[in-house]
Write a structure and sequence with these properties.
Elements: H1 4-40, E1 51-56, H2 64-71, E2 79-85, H3 93-102, E3 107-111, H4 120-130, E4 138-142, H5 152-157, E5 167-169, E6 172-176, H6 181-194, E7 209-213, H7 214-220, H8 222-226, H9 232-242, E8 247-249, E9 255-259, H10 263-280, H11 282-311, H12 317-344, H13 349-354, H14 356-361, H15 366-379, E10 382-385, E11 388-394, E12 397-400
Parallel strand pairs: 1-2, 1-4, 2-3, 5-8, 6-9
Antiparallel strand pairs: 4-7, 5-7, 10-11, 11-12
Helix pairs in contact: 1-11, 1-12, 6-10, 10-11, 10-15, 11-12, 11-15
């Protein structure tokens, strides 16, 4: 009991800090919304370099054929497709070959072999880049689980005419295809990552949607950075940072990805993302860990103190207000994000609006899932990615644990 005033003072200090942070992030959300609206009005222009679209594939998944067909239908007039798998025995190979054969643009299917000391996706990308024609001027990396629109490629490549930027990037937006709780939780978990990227942020590349000039790719030494890596995007980001080349985020190029998962899949995906961040972007990981830990600590303290006062029939309104105001601000940020994304992905506006309650309600409790992911990343350096287990020793050392 003697410590309760001290605990209450600590809570009040933490709560005020959380409210101030929440207000700051809400303002940032408004600015992000304005940036997204400005970007939609930008004319992509006429810059159309000879482009290679590289799509690594592994395993069959729902919607795979539709996703790959979308890559064949861009209105960019000067591109070639490269699908790359580890082996012809991959279950995705028949679908990939069929799509390549039916593609209206030239599409090549490559087989990279099994990885040794690096991730299979990275191994596939290295193989594809080394097989490209000499006249390729721009590289665009995509994932097989995304479904970009027809103007996507033109908008991704166009800003590369500005040599001040090293690369352009975007981010996924998950749309659930099932109403189960883990799928909705994963959908909400992914959403805040979209607004981590911005107009003046320290942006990072996302492997499912990044464009880079081939000359910049070579000068940055991305291939060398990939040699012992499991993370294609963070490794490319690090290579660009060393050369002082900023990454431009293009919200108008958000990529829809349809998702249906289980609790096991939810934890596998979220734990993997956070551990990869810890290994390849430690400062970002540490900042996010501290932010989520303090949010969860503040909420837990506030809830305990509020309930204690209610039980003791003491005034508790001020404690309840300090406890729940940060949650309301988090809901406000989620609402701003949904408004912006519904405009950016106008073809999916009805679905996004119908599912907006997921981001606004479930989203306020996401820091607790993130905190569990951060704690897991402290305990283990092992991940599972599309059936293959890896141990992430360091940014420059990866151990493949699954027998090949």
């Amino acid at each position: 009991m003697l410590c309760s005033p001290c605990v209450e003072i600590l809570f009040e200090i933490l709560a005020v800090l959380q409210i101030l942070l929440g207000l700051y992030l809400a303002v940032q959300g408004v600015m992000w919304l304005a940036y997204a609206k400005r970007r939609t009005m930008v004319d992509p222009g006429f810059y159309a370099p000879r482009t290679a679209v590289i799509c690594p594939c592994r395993g069959s998944e729902p919607g795979l054929e539709q996703n790959l067909m979308a890559l064949c239908e861009f209105d960019h007039q000067n591109y070639e497709l490269f699908f790359v798998l580890a082996s012809e025995s991959d279950s995705a190979a028949p679908t990939v070959k069929r799509v390549a054969a039916q593609s209206r643009v030239k599409a090549t299917v490559l087989f990279a072999g099994r990885p040794d000391g690096r991730g299979e996706k990275v191994n596939n990308l290295i193989h594809a880049v080394t097989q490209l024609p000499k006249d390729i001027e721009a590289l665009v990396f995509v994932d097989s689980d995304g479904r970009p629109g027809k103007s996507w490629l033109r908008r991704m490549v166009s800003p590369l005419h500005d040599v001040r930027y090293g690369a352009t990037t975007t981010m996924r937006w998950l749309i659930p295809t099932a109403a189960n709780f883990p799928t909705m939780l994963l959908t909400a978990w992914n959403a805040p990552i979209v607004t981590m990227l911005g107009e003046k942020s320290n942006n990072f590349c996302w492997g499912g949607g990044t464009a880079i000039r081939k000359s910049e790719f070579d000068q940055c030494g991305v291939l060398e950075e990939w040699q012992r890596s499991v993370s294609d995007d963070y490794s490319m980001t690090n290579a660009l940072e060393r050369r002082g080349k900023p990454i431009q985020f293009l919200p108008e190029c958000l990529v829809v990805s349809f998702v249906n998962t289980s609790f096991e899949g939810l934890l596998e995906f979220t734990n993997r993302q956070i551990l990869i961040t810890r290994v390849y972007a430690h400062k970002m990981w540490a900042t996010a860990f501290a932010t989520h830990f303090l949010f969860c600590l503040t909420f837990a303290l506030g809830l305990i103190l509020t309930l204690a006062d209610v039980v003791a029939t003491l005034p508790s309104l001020h404690l309840a207000a300090l406890t729940f105001l940060p949650l309301l601000l988090a809901s406000l940020r989620s609402a701003l994000r949904v408004i912006a994304v519904a405009d950016l992905l106008s073809g999916y506006r009805a679905q996004i609006n119908a599912q907006s309650w997921i981001y606004i309600t479930i989203g306020v409790f996401l820091p607790f899932l993130y905190l569990a992911n951060f704690v897991t990343s402290l305990i283990s350096r092992r991940i599972r990615w599309r059936g293959i287990r890896y141990e992430l020793i360091s940014p420059n050392e990866t151990r493949v644990l699954t027998p090949q």
